[in-house]
Design goal:
Blueprint (H helix, E strand, L loop, with lengths): L1 H26 L6 H23 L6 H14 L3 H12 L3 H25 L2
Main location: membrane
GO molecular function: fluoride channel activity; metal ion binding
Subcellular location: Cell membrane
Length: 121
């Protein structure tokens, strides 16, 4: 039964990620890796919010955790696409972007996670 919670959350997260990619592509001039950066930052914020809230309310090992953190956030965020995006910008000779993209991804995602945790206190 627990697999259903992970699958449901993961499916919703993956669709949400796809929608973010579509919206950015249709309404901005953001580079293709921009949506990956955005979902990883937002996903880190959400993981912080969910984790902090669930821990604070004694639900850290509950089905809610499987649905929201393992499922939704796991389906929403992506590291494999991040790696592919980094490979592409390096292959295109965009060395400044190749330096800044992983730096911003890690620093801003960690900051968003911390913000999410602090918001639950």
């Amino acid at each position: 039964m627990t697999f259903l919670y992970v699958a449901l959350g993961g499916g919703i997260g993956a669709v949400a990620r796809y929608c973010v990619s579509l919206l950015l592509a249709q309404h901005t001039n953001a580079p293709s890796w921009g949506s990956t950066l955005l979902v990883n930052i937002v996903g880190s914020l959400l993981i912080g919010l969910f984790y902090g809230y669930l821990q604070r309310h004694g639900l850290g090992n509950s089905l809610w955790s499987l649905l929201l953190i393992t499922g939704f956030c796991g389906g929403f965020t992506t590291f494999s696409t991040f790696s592919l995006d980094l490979f592409r910008v390096l292959s295109e000779g965009q060395y400044l972007t190749a330096f800044l993209y992983p730096l911003l991804s890690v620093v801003l995602s960690f900051a968003a996670l911390t913000l999410g945790l602090l918001a639950t206190k």
